[in-house]
Amino acid sequence: MPPSSPSPRSTHDPDGAGRGRERLELPAVPGAAGDARRFMAARLRKWGLDALVEDCELVASELVTNAVQAVACAAAAAARAPDPADPPPKVRLLLRRTPGRLVCEVWDPVDARPVPAAAATFDECGRGLLLVASLASGWTCRTCPDGGKTVTAWWQLGPELPE
C-alpha cells in the first residue's frame, strides 16, 4: 500500500458479543479489495473455515471493488474534484459467523443498488455479481436508513465445517 494511503482499520465489532463477528473499515481506493481479501483469509483461518477461504476472498474482493467503484462514480456524477486534503470516503466489510451460516456484508455510502450485468464474451468487466452468485449460497442488497447500501453474501455451513 502506498505510504500516502490511509490504512485499513480492523476492529472487533462490539455488537458481536465477543465471537464470530469482525469488521474492517477501508478507504474507498483501488487497493481496498486486496486488504479485504487478506482480512477474509485471516479471519476464516482463525475460525477454522479454511475450506471457504478462496471463495470468500473472491466474493469480498468483488463486493469491495463494486463499493469503491460506486463511490468513484458518485463523485464523478457530482462533478466536483475531491479535495486532496480530505480523506477518501470509507467502505466497511463486516464478517459474521452464525450457527449454520457465514455472512459477508459490504457497506458503502452510495444509495444506488448494484445491477448484475450481461457481459459479452470478451468484456473485461460486468461479471462480478454473477461470480458472487456462483460462489456464495446467496446474496442480496438493501438500502440503509442512514444512507448508503449494504450488499450481503452468505454461505451455508454444512456439518463438516465448524460453527
UniProtKB/TrEMBL annotation:
Keywords: ATP-binding, Kinase, Nucleotide-binding, Serine/threonine-protein kinase, Transferase. It comes from the Bacteria. GO terms for molecular function: ATP binding. The keyword Nucleotide-binding applies. Residues 27-153 form the Histidine kinase/HSP90-like ATPase domain. Residues 10-25 have a biased composition (Basic and acidic residues). SUPFAM superfamilies: ATPase domain of HSP90 chaperone/DNA topoisomerase II/histidine kinase (SSF55874). Residues 1-28 are annotated as: Disordered. PANTHER family: ANTI-SIGMA-F FACTOR RSBW, ANTI-SIGMA-F FACTOR RSBW-RELATED. This is ATP-binding protein. It comes from Actinomadura rugatobispora. The lineage of its organism: Bacteria, Bacillati, Actinomycetota, Actinomycetes, Streptosporangiales.
